[in-house]
Amino acid sequence: MTRIVAGSAGGRRLKVPPKGTRPTSERVREALFSSLESLMDLDGVRVLDLYAGSGALGFEALSRGAGHATFVEADKRAAEVLKANARELPFRDVVIANRSAEAYSVSEGEAFDVVFADPPYAVTDGELEKVLSGLVNAARLTAGAVLIVERASRSAEPAWPEGVESLRAKRYGDTAVYWGQVRSDG
After folding, report:
1. Torsion of CA 59, 62, 67, 72, to 10 degrees
2. Region Disordered: what ranges (predicted)?
3. Which of 5, 60, 88, 171 has the fewest CB atoms within 10 Å distance of its CB?
4. Helix (H) or strand (E) holding 147
């Protein structure tokens, strides 16, 4: 069972796709959001949840005050689960894009303050680098935007695109969370 940890929808359960995803554990989400909330005020921020799966990260952000979340999920069954979760929750400013993270990252559109990227472990470092670079090159990030990437703990830190600096890395068992931030000087 996956549930929202805290905020206005704390304790609400989320449906999870039957296979092909691994939702971020409650322990990791709790630690991640504690760190994120010490770094920035989530009130009204625009969130992008790439490789969204059940949407646990984006829905957690909305529960804690984010104003908007866009969920990007390539798998059709997982996108249907995301839509079902969105219908069950009280959040209204939600967009679900059933397309690849790479295609979404290079398309024109709104800019985001927080980006979560929790790709399947099979996604290569090179593929992830293209997605992160696409977000920068397509101007999809605000000045000071925070990028949070979840990978297997045996993975190397992502190659952050130019203009994004590494903030921190933290391991939680077999999961590693890497933080980057768009430099405000350019």
Report:
1. -10
2. 1-23
3. 171
4. strand 141-152
Asked if residue 121 lies in contact with residue 152, where contact means CB atoms within 8 angstroms, the answer is yes
DSSP for residue 63: H
- 65-97 pLDDT, tens per residue? 999 999 999 999 999 999 999 999 999 899 999
Residue 65 contacts residue 43 (beta carbons within 8 Å): yes
Which structural domain range is residue 15 located in? Answer: 2-182
Q: Domain count of the chain?
A: 1
The residue behind tokens 């921020």 is: 45
* Eight-class DSSP state of 24: P
> H or E element: which one contains 77?
helix 76-88
- Distance, in Å, from the CA atom of 61 to the CA atom of 41, rounded to the nearest integer, reads 11
- Taking a C-beta distance cutoff of 8 angstroms, is the pair 32, 64 a contact? no
**Taking the alpha carbons of 23, 88, 142, 106 in that order, is the dihedral positive or negative?**
positive
Separation CA 21–CA 51 (nearest Å): 9
Q: Do the beta carbons of residue 120 and residue 53 sit within 8 Å?
A: no
